[in-house]
Batch of 3 targets.
Target 1
Amino acid sequence: MEVANFYKHVIRKYRHTYSLELMHKNIDEAIDSMFQIEQLLLRRKPTLSRWQHDGWYMANAGKWYYAYTINDDTVTIEDACHEQNMH
């Protein structure tokens, strides 16, 4: 999962200032926000070309952008990207 991988890299890079507890809190918050897609988070046209190419929708929650598909009533998260990596 992209969210967990991102924060694992953060804790490695900032091991003296970024705690394991904060890492888990950040991951939990990012995952919780995924459940708001199509409920509170607005559907947007993807800004990343690879997401556009695959025909995915995009939603933004705080520092995270999520690419997703919808099949009937099921939302599937296809990818996630932290705002620092949105280019």
Note: Helices lie at 2-13, 20-34, 49-53.
Target 2
Amino acid sequence: MKKMNLDKGLMVQLILVLILVIVLLLSLFFKFLLPVAEILAGAALIVMGYNNYRIYKRKAMTAIYIAFGIIVFMGVIWGFISG
């Protein structure tokens, strides 16, 4: 049962990264997709932090990934607020 939960976290990470790559490639042609790419990058960083904590037991890297994910989300919010 525990292995299934670990595989779900890795599957979510894989899907987020694949969608992020696709959106980044599309954003070369459609500039309105850049905020979507930033949101996906923040979500991917937070999921990577979660996987580091649950699977690899590296607590220092977990904090770094989650901190950068929050910083990316704050940057997206700041960009929407400032216009």
Note: Residues 32 and 69 are 21 Å apart (CA to CA).
Target 3
Amino acid sequence: MHYFYFLISFFLGTAFFLNAQDNASANITPSDTEAFLDTSFFGDILENVQEQDAMGTQRIIDTEESVFSPSLSLTTSYNYSSNPLKAEDSSPSSLNDGFSANLNLAFNLGVGEYPLGDNILLTPAFSLMQMRTYNDPAKDFGNDMQAFDVDVQVFGFSVPFVLPDDFTLSLGHTYVRPIAFRNDNVINYTNTPSVSLAKNIPLDNGDILTLSVGGSYSFSEGDTLEEAIADPVYYQFIEAVMQSSGLDPLTAQPSNLQDSWSHMVNIAYLKPISEQISIMPSYAFSRIQYSKGANTGRQDYVHNLGVNLSYSFSELVNFSLLSNYTWKLSDDPSVQEYEDFIGGIVAGFNYSF
């Protein structure tokens, strides 16, 4: 479960980071040139025309762009992990390292820009994402890692408020459903409302420093034991064993084991090297406090140091080299603390309608 939780956090952490960049771009407003070349400008010119053709004076029709701004992105990556099981044990008998292949398909829909007064701009958006991870695609460990292959389905919406002085306040909600697709088992269902505040600081040399803080609450529900075990005969055997031990299988569920408060601090530094190449180091810290189930009162602390080197081949295609070092601490001695180094290559394809 820790592996799945980390995997979800990692992808979600990546998704949050990309969303912060999108929010920053929302600061762009219509230019002075666009305001100048409106229909009244062309109307004044046409009024000075003395001659008319057979169809009469031609006038510019004022058209309004759609408020919807859909986009589609496909990302594929191949990553190395020094600790694929996210385990404390690094003995030779354990799987010390491994590779994974990831496929992500995302649809994003902006639904317009709405001024609130003179200084605030509201830019709501929706997103739908399907992610699939194949662990150990080269099968260096046979089929041992197939049990960790997972689909993650994510639906979210965000309501960013673009504020003066390059501040952005974002309200959002994310629904996540990880699935062990090889046996069609939904691991859990998680809903996470969140709030964050980000500040972009443009520097004189053209670099951009981004600071953000945020908080969220995740409440989850898992499949029942009977739903998680596809074989009815095997379930009856497990049920009998649990009942003989004085346990009720209806109450021994994974539900609410992940219910938690999270607080996050993130620092990112974007440095353009050329028109096509940029590098972005970052640091993120999260404190997770569990509020229900067997984990009530437990607190985990997750640190992540990362760097991303990006090459924009065109408006549609980009490539990245990424590296992340993550370490997790906990105040619960029964929880495994771990360290993990991840490095990989990413290819992205983006299309805006």
Note: The helical segments are 2-25, 32-36, 39-47, 225-228, 232-244.
